[in-house]
Amino acid sequence: MATIVVDGVEFEVDEGQNLLHACLSQGLELPYFCWHPSLGSVGACRQCAVIQYADADDTRGRLTMACMTPAKDGTRISIQTETAKQFRASVIEWLMENHPHDCPVCEEGGECHLQDMTVMTGHIQRRYRGRKRTFENQYLGPFLNHEMNRCITCYRCVRFYNDYAGGTDLQAFGSRDRMYFGRTTDGVLENEFSGNLIEVCPTGVFTDKPFSESYTRKWDLSSAPSICAGCAVGCNTFVSERYGRLKRVHNRYHGELNGYFLCDRGRFGAGFVNSTDRIEHVGERVEDDLFDVLDGEVGIAKLAEMIRQGDVVGIGSPRASLETNVALKTLVGEAQFCTGMSSAEESLVDLIIQTQRATSADIPSLSDVESADAVLILGEDVLNTAPRVALALRQTVRNRALNLAGEAGIPQWQDAGVSSHAQGRLNPLFIASVLPSGIDDIAADLAHDVPLNLADCGFAIAACIGEASGSEPGFVRKAAAALRSAQNPLIVSGTSTRTRAIVEAAGAVVAALESAGKVPRLLLVAPEANSFGSGLIGGGLDMNAALQRVASGSTKTLIVAENDIFRRAERERVEQALCTVENLVVLDSLDTPTASLASLVFPAATFAESTGTFVNYETRAQRFYCVFEPRNAIAPSWRWLAQAATDAGRDDLGWRHVDDVLEAVAASPNMAGVRAVAPDAGYLGSSLCKTPRETPRFSGRTAMNANVNIHEPKTSVDEETPLSFSMEGLNRDQPSALLPFVWAPGWNSNQSVFKFQQEIGGAAAGGDPGVRLLASGSIGTMPARSASVRSDGGGVDTGFRLIPVQAIFGSDELSSRSPPVVERSSAAFMIFSPMDAERLGAAQGMGVSCSVLGATFAVTVDAAMKSGYVGVSVGFTGAEGELPDGLIALAVDPNYRPTPNPHDRVIARG
Amino acid sequence: MITLSTKPLTERVEAVGGLVDMAAYENAGGYEAARQAITKSEPEAVQGLVKDADLRGRGGAGFPTGVKWGFVPKGDAAGPGHKYLVCNADEMEPGTFKDRYLMEMDPHLLIEGMLIAAFAIGADKAYIFLRGEYHESFKRLSSALADATEKGYVGRNVFGSDFSVDLVIHRSGGRYICGEETALLNALEGKRGQPRTKPPFPPASGAWGRPTIVNNVETLCNVPGILSNGVDWFRDLGIGNDSGTKLYGVSGRVNRPGLWELPIGTTIREIIEEHAGGMQEGYKLRGILPGGASTDFLTVEHLDLPMDYGSIQAAGSRMGTGTMILMDDSVCPVAISINLQHFFAQESCGFCTPCREGLPWLEQLLIDIEEGRGQPGDLELLDGNAAFIGAPGNTFCLHATGAMEPLLSALRYFREDFEAHIESGGCPYRERGH
Fold first, then answer.
1. A527 upstream amide cis, omega within 30 of 0
2. B221-232 b/e with 16+ CB inside 10 Å = b?
3. Which of A267, A297, A285 is CA-nearest to residue A199?
4. B192–A172 CB contact, under 8 Å
5. How far apart are CA A209 and CA A212, in angstroms?
6. Which residues 6+ apart lie within 8 Å of B368 measured at CB?
7. Using CB atoms, which residue from B186, B347, B391 is nearest to A63?
8. Contact list, B395 vs chain A (CB under 8 Å)
9. Which of A64, A94, A174 lies closest to B357 in CB terms?
10. A729-779: pLDDT as tens digits
């Protein structure tokens, strides 16, 4: 710690930090633009000027930039001295020379850091008499607007986009007062984290395009803390609405997980909530594609009757909440419950849970990931399956620069100094994958092979770690050496290739490191928001068994909760089961192939309209809160099930509120921690003390429905959560899991987040949200290497072996029904080796048809693809479900025409 | 008895009467200093000589060259990899053409200076970062480099020793800021030409993150003489506190504008009156920019100051490059300020706010004043902004500080001219027909 004196007052601050960081930590108001807690200092904007005094006798002092000055013990500064205030006002005056006066029509208005800082410095009068410079804006794709005239040249965008996120297509161009931040030409910003520019830009240059198409001021948004439903990382989000429409998703700071940044799937993938494909009423099937709308009570009575008749099988879903899954499991009984994952997926998730339990290696949070100093990625394409992990890995390797800077006496927050000294030297990252990935640029070495060979590679690395020397190929030897000599080695793998041996090999590498006296970490990802929740709940039937049982005719009723079964097993198997069963009851939010076969459909609430719990890859249970009340008959799936069960005379599902369900969840094995995840509806006791979803400046609530009814509707009372659907209540000092938005006096933008942290860049105030359900550490036995069936690749004559390939935009079910993500998705594709493509007579731009999958795929050729194998875009049309085993015949489709795309280039896969 | 030279930089050029080629250079004893140093001496000894000679940087800042060389880590402390010597030949200071003279007339002198400097700091890679527009310099340096390489003076095993150094001439894309040593290094690496954060300082972590020394052309050209003729000779060359000779230049309405090698510390009066032949008939001297466009104006009262680092600084300006621009009584101080500020605003790299946004505003204010749109309060606006923009440390690098030096001093020395513009609603000089 260091003692610094600011305007005569002593403060105890972190000695390793700069003065801006130190002052903000102490709650002092010091304006800034270019500094960012995750990006460090570069000294570009000169906004955080203070007067620094040489010693106690120095009364004049000199101007210095707080962000560029270390907070050394004994530092004496003044923020309030007139010269410092005048200089800071001058900086705003200089920036305002060219900044347009378009706040009333700017999407940033009301939550603009530039507005806040302008007010903070007190600059009010324009003295510049010249013209403002103007630029042409660029088309940047479906996610972002570009309005360069507003740019204040803080360089944050390129520093985030290039240095932090590894982007290459956004650059600083030009010089002097004509600096331009954009692409070389119009086109889609390619980086998977481009949406963060919305929050990184201190003004309105990069704004949220889907949001601005249906725009609402921040003060008119009603928001709730939520958890991203896009993958198993479980990034914390603020989700906002008005008029019952989801408006936008913003980052909700989590010190251990997402920090300040989200991926574009998470930020732009929630648009399915507003989809016209939403199921909004209970429906009873009349004939194909024709449903009668039923009154909710009637629907419940019909379902109750089915429950009474017995022979019910329930299929849950890894994209549904713990609450809904436990409700269905309770209703049908464990023996009749299937988690809803495919059989292959479920066995892999079980294997992951078994492995994580058996090893003493911790499951790393993303901040743990960033502290690793050597990484092996085995067979998992994290940029496309758990994108935020890939962003963390970029920081992991960049931390080498921090170490080098430390040795050279350069402070870690001196971002430009750290980079220019490190000159791109990185911590070692080894990637063994089927295909090149979007983070290959930071890898020390790469190996591309088919999944089973990647597993062999992993086992060879494990063996090599235990040996002093060996004759292994370079990749294996180098990876083993790097992991062995690291302080904090990290292994990353997962389920995306559906290969058991890969997860086993990852476990073997970790075990070898433990034997070598290391303390490794193991990060294993599964694809969906609640895959790990589903895995921990478990069920008596796996998907194939459940479908077989239903197809055998012994099941009268099949209840499917928030799941499209066609994505979970081969089409034939699913069709057989769904067409055999007498009653198919589907609860879902969107119309799906499964829902359209249902005899009875219930409209399910999405994450935005219900409160529930997801379990992420760390087995961290996290609560998402209902953002707005669903329209029409939409209700949480668990509620439909509980009401029907109660109607049927069951006494064990008499749940009225989500907290009642949670109590039942907590009684399940492994789930004891879930009630502590976030406050329940009774938090602070009184309805007056509920946390308001609406901001203190919320406007128009007496008028916003006046076109329908001039009478002001009664404000709904939220009995489910500690949040209120109004602006009244107590939005202060609540646990971080209950924070609905960030906003502080004088800090209207998201830069106010530091007011809600224990320390800048540290844990959220009150602790980071979530409770880990599984303690790691030597429980049970490490899974042994299973005997894999070795099978060779095929060829043009025999057919090809299919390997699943994931895409950030398109593989995930829900986000790929969000309009901006649809725009970024490509057509379903297959990836061939150049030799196979040639033999098949296929080339880029052509299509191949697959009779087994019943679809045509765009041809992509990649030299890294092994001959005899074909990568298939899973989750896309034709490959929604599990890929068939065996050799699959493919043929060039002469009638194929590539889907015309209005954009210069669509990048669906990272 | 050997008469030691008093013009170590230019004597060969004067003797030859033009370009000094390899033969002429060697005939005059060229490359002997480098040969002796590299084959018979030690790097520390060479550093010691340059330090003792008190050779100060001739690029403008005047930092002691030997001290700078001493900052380069030695042996294992340097870590694995290259060390770099970079010659800053990006001579873009308005009014300055001294390095160009040396490179065009005596290119081997620079190459020899660089050989010795590279040897002294242990650099195995050397670059000449050359101003893009210096086509003739490039031609002549390239040809000289080819000759030196052919003779084994540059490349592997220089003069048959263990010492090897590659020398590359890199032509700049052309920005004034690339003369700033860290912006130069960024540009050399192919990055945006904008200055770097310090620390790290280049001697510890410069080009490609490796120890790097950046020296000006004239500085390096002084090194061979120091080694040949000794420390005492070099120290005695200077008149005042500083050592050696200096290339002084004069532009403006003098009778003989030009460039002369004179003992450092020669007075401004002597340079202007004796060497430049005094002011042209009918013109009176009003202001002097002593060391290029980015130095404070001096006036006739400063004529007897010696042109050395300390004296000019004490008078509130900087010797800078030592090539002065004279302002006579026919020149409008507001107009010259516009000209200067236009240059600096245009050459701002765009990184920090006061420089990027402040300089163009000041240029516009000056244009308003010159064109009769000045308003009461504009001078105070200029004063306030120029003070904030110009104070060292308020901007990221010293570009804006340099830009404000001639403006702040013009506002001080020629304030009545600025006031007259605003009061009369136009430029009195134009009305007088100048």
1. no
2. bbbbbbbbbebe
3. A267
4. yes
5. 5
6. A129, B374, B375, B378
7. B391
8. 46
9. A94
10. 889 889 999 999 999 999 999 999 999 999 999 999 999 999 999 876 667
- Quick check: A884 and A852 in contact, CB under 8 A? yes
Taking a C-beta distance cutoff of 8 angstroms, is the pair B249, B271 a contact?
no
Nearest alpha-carbon partner for A423 in B141, B224, B82, B275:
B82
- Who's near B173: CB < 8 A, 6+ residues apart? B132, B187, B193
A544-559 pLDDT tens trace:
999 999 999 989 999 9
**DSSP state string for B77-120:** GG-SS--EEEEEE---STT--HHHHHHHH-HHHHHHHHHHHHHH
B205 touches chain A (CB under 8 A): yes
In this structure, which amino acid lies at residue A625?
Answer: Y
- CA–CA separation, B180 vs B294, rounded Å? 13
- The answer to whether the CB atoms of B350 and A177 lie below 8 A apart is yes
C-alpha distances in Å from residue A66, one per residue of A46, A63, A159, A755, B422: 9, 9, 20, 19, 39
pTM over 0.90: yes
Name the percent of chain A lying above pLDDT 90: 86
Q: Is the ipTM of this complex over 0.90?
A: yes
Cβ-based burial of A629 (10 A; exposed 0-12, middle 13-18, buried ≥19): middle
Q: Using the beta-carbon criterion (under 8 Å), do A45 and B353 form an inter-chain contact?
A: yes
Domains along chain B? 11-235 (3.40.50.11540), 238-328 (3.10.20.600), 333-431 (1.20.1440.230)
| Disruptive mutation site among B84, B194, B356, B404 for chain A (greatest number of A CBs within 10 Å) | B356
Backbone angles phi, psi at B216, to 5 degrees: -75, 160
Rounded Cα distance between A613 and A530, Å, is: 8
Task: Provide the strand spans (E) within A393-543.
Answer: 429-433, 445-448, 489-494, 521-525
Two tokens, residue B78: 């340097």
Alpha helices in A122-212 (DSSP H): 156-158, 196-200, 209-212
| CA pair distance B37, B42, nearest whole angstrom | 7
Q: Å from B341 to nearest chain A CA? A: 13
Q: Any idea which residue has 């935020």 for tokens?
A: A388
pLDDT tens digits along A449-490? 999 999 999 999 999 998 866 667 799 999 999 999 999 999
Tell me what pLDDT residue A468 has. Answer: 65
Extract the tokens encoding B306: 């010696």
Cα atoms in the Cβ-side hemisphere of radius 13 Å centred on A258: 30
Q: B194, B353, B396: which to substitute to probe chain A, counting the most A Cβ within 10 Å?
A: B353
